[in-house]
Specification:
Layout (H helix, E strand, L loop, with lengths): L9 E6 L4 E6 L2 H7 L2 H12 L13 E4 L14 E6 L6 E6 L4 H4 L4 E5 L6 E6 L2 E6 L8 H12 L4 E4 L2 H4 L7 E3 L3 E3 L4 H7 L2 E7 L9 H17 L3 H7 L5 H7 L3 E2 L4 E2 L4 H4 L2 H7 L1 E5 L9 E6 L7 E5 L2 H10 L6 H14 L3 H16 L18 H13 L3 H5 L2 H9 L9 E2 L2 E2 L4 H4 L3 H8 L17 H11 L3 H7 L7 H18 L5 H4 L3 H12 L5 H21 L12 H4 L2 E3 L2 E3 L4 H15 L10 H6 L5
Parallel strand pairs: 1-6, 7-12
Antiparallel strand pairs: 1-2, 3-4, 3-6, 4-5, 7-8, 9-10, 9-12, 10-11, 13-14, 15-16, 16-17, 18-19, 20-21
Length: 627
């Protein structure tokens, strides 16, 4: 395999127990079958993580991967991936963000960290040099202070990824944060890092990334820029970020309220007016590596009659949902203050919002009392009480000791009467209400995804006609026979569509490209041409889709090996039993039989057993993943 660009061809392996490092070549077979980044990470996790292993054991590995386009000037090429064993059910843990590309400049496609340090450790990677530095003084510090102290010690050229007190205390919904804002969130990856006594990871690289065919590359990149510039929403993505759909999502009722007891309608815009965010909170734009869009935000407000808040936020939608709609905190500033507390503690915004809204409903129903809360009342929208509870979760104090084990385990501890109100799938809190729009692949995928969270961002989030879905499928280059299965005469099947929207967004994930809609507008043929020009490997859209399919086969096989089954691909009972109101509309509970039919259709479209959701042993063997 003649690779002349994109890949460094090297994997850095670090053992914290032995304080050793080793550089190994990246397997050509893995590149052939999985292409890079998240795909190769899935394969490494399947091959190297022992069955039924302890997420907090030294044998668990943190596997970081960067796709072949990261480090080049391809727009949006900054999305790194982290794969590990999650503390949630011990299933596969997956996370990613757009600011880990410094590892590529240090000369590595992948970084695998195993073992456990004897004492708190700062791991420094500077090109080929690996240093194990003491971090006793950093242990107990929050994320912002830790980052500042590492920069004081090493210099701001280093990209610093660290955990806060939540990760140190093995809180299951803890995160890892790079440079104070880019977050490896969901699936408890911060707790895995904490279990290794790894407080911070600092990376600096002085190298570059080769491109196989410079002229071909420049032509391909020019085409990408042309499509991006033609996007009529491009400047609104920069201005509003993930809040770009706030108004339309509100009208559709897609924002859940009070732990999914209700749904917001246009009244949400009175509590969170979009222009007020821009004028009262935001002071600048932030971009991921190589991204011309810049959909993240510098926030700065207060300082005289109110507390000063300064921070950068990657996803404002998660701030508004996690604390605004879930917990009823009113207004941008109060929601951001809750997010700042969570970020400093190293907690995932969405997950901690799910936890807090769960507790608020229990308190409302009398299932917990002030005896459980340390003598303090808990009411919807009480920002100060919510921030206090966030700190308690991170520090495992009082009720926080129970909540630190995640929604699923917390409900088991608090008693069976509380379990119906723990709104999770596979241990992770639910993001969107399927009663409002099950036809969205983004919403449907929460329940079939291997990690219990949305697996794709797609055009089907808002209402689409079958003809619109058919045109979308043609535009992104799906096979004609697949389009006919997805969009029969009767409408469109969200289970079947979900397979393909997952694959398309997974192609971007594997290559290292942002998965947001501006980049999905480009056909797979364009991305195949970019990949060919960068790597020197002639690549087709079929090659890219095959790599995405292989990644999903392996991720699914990992979970099945750990005891997962089709029964895990389901909704909380509330969605099957209770109606929900959106403005003047009353939406009935989901029909469980229809939901199961859609899940079976998803399995079938993936080529898995429609009853069990298992990929065939022949398929796994064909990509070198047989046990």
């Amino acid at each position: 395999m003649d690779i002349r660009g994109g890949y460094t061809g090297r994997v850095l392996r670090i053992d914290l127990t032995r304080k050793t490092s080793e550089i190994q070549p990246l397997s050509a077979d893995l590149i052939r079958d999985f292409r890079g980044g998240a795909g190769i990470n899935a394969a490494l996790a399947y091959k190297e993580l022992e069955r039924f292993g302890d997420p907090y054991s030294p044998e668990n590995k943190m596997i970081f991967g960067l796709g072949p386009l990261i480090g080049t000037m391809v727009p949006g090429a900054g999305k790194g991936n982290l794969t590990t064993r999650s503390p949630h059910r011990k299933f596969i843990g997956i996370s990613g963000h757009g600011l880990f590309g410094m590892l590529k400049f240090a000369g590595f496609d992948h970084l695998v960290i195993s073992g456990r340090a004897d004492t708190p450790t700062l791991l420094k990677i500077e090109d080929d040099r690996v240093s194990f530095m003491e971090a006793d003084a950093l242990w107990g510090q929050d994320v912002f202070d830790t980052t500042d102290q590492v920069w004081d010690r090493l210099g701001e050229r280093f990209h610093v990824t660290c955990i806060g007190p939540a990760g140190e205390n093995l809180v299951r919904d803890s995160s890892m944060i790079t440079n104070k804002y880019a977050t490896f969130a969901r699936t408890g990856v911060g707790a895995v890092m904490g279990s290794k006594n790894l407080k911070a990871l600092a990376i600096y690289g002085s190298g570059g990334v080769a491109v196989a065919d410079r002229n071909r590359f420049l032509k391909a990149v020019k085409k990408v820029y042309q499509v991006l510039r033609a996007d009529p929403n491009l400047l609104n993505w920069r201005k509003y970020g993930t809040l770009i759909s706030l108004e339309i999502f509100s009208r559709l009722g897609l924002y859940a309220g009070k732990n999914y007891q209700s749904a917001y309608h246009e009244d949400l815009l009175d509590r969170f007016p979009l222009e007020a965010f821009v004028h009262d909170c935001k002071e600048g734009d932030v971009a991921c590596q190589a991204c011309p869009v810049g959909c993240k935000h510098h926030l700065n407000f207060g300082g005289v009659e109110e507390p000063r808040t300064r921070m950068a936020v990657s996803c404002m939608n998660s701030v508004m949902q996690g604390f605004g709609t879930f917990c009823l905190v009113n207004g941008w500033k109060e929601a951001v203050r809750c997010a700042e507390t969570a970020a400093r503690m190293g907690l995932d915004f969405m997950s901690v919002g799910n936890l807090v809204s769960f507790v608020l409903e229990l308190y409302d129903r009398g299932l917990i009392t002030e005896k459980d809360t340390g003598g303090k009342p808990l009411h919807w929208g009480d920002g100060e009480a919510i921030r206090d509870l966030i700190r308690k979760i991170a520090l495992r104090e009082g009720l926080g000791e129970v909540l630190a084990n995640g929604l699923e385990e917390a409900a088991k501890t608090l008693g069976p009467e509380t379990e119906p109100y723990a709104m999770h799938t596979k241990g992770l809190g639910v993001l969107y209400d399927p009663r409002v729009r099950l036809e969205s692949t983004e919403i449907f995928s929460q329940f079939t995804n291997v990690r219990g969270y949305i697996s794709n961002v797609s055009v089907a989030m808002v209402e689409r006609t079958p003809d619109q879905i058919r045109r979308y499928c043609k535009k992104i280059g799906l096979p004609a026979d697949a389009i006919d299965r997805i969009v029969p005469e009767s409408g469109y099947n969200v289970g079947r569509l979900n397979k393909w929207t997952e694959d398309v967004t997974s192609v971007l994930e594997i290559l290292g490209i942002c998965m947001f809609p501006p980049y999905q507008r480009l056909s797979l043929d364009i991305w195949a041409e970019v990949c060919s020009a960068v790597t020197g490997l002639e690549t087709t859209r079929e090659d890219l889709l095959s790599a995405a399919e292989n990644m999903w086969h392996v991720r699914r096989a990992f979970n099945l090996r750990e005891g997962a089954s089709h029964l895990d691909d389901t909704c909380p009972d509330r969605f099957f039993k209770e109606p929900v109101s959106v403005g003047s509309r009353r939406l009935e509970p989901l029909k469980e039989s229809h939901f199961r039919e859609l899940v079976r259709a998803y399995y079938d479209e993936r080529g898995w057993d429609p009853d069990t959701g298992a990929p065939s042993s022949e398929k796994l063997a064909g990509i070198g993943m047989s046990d």
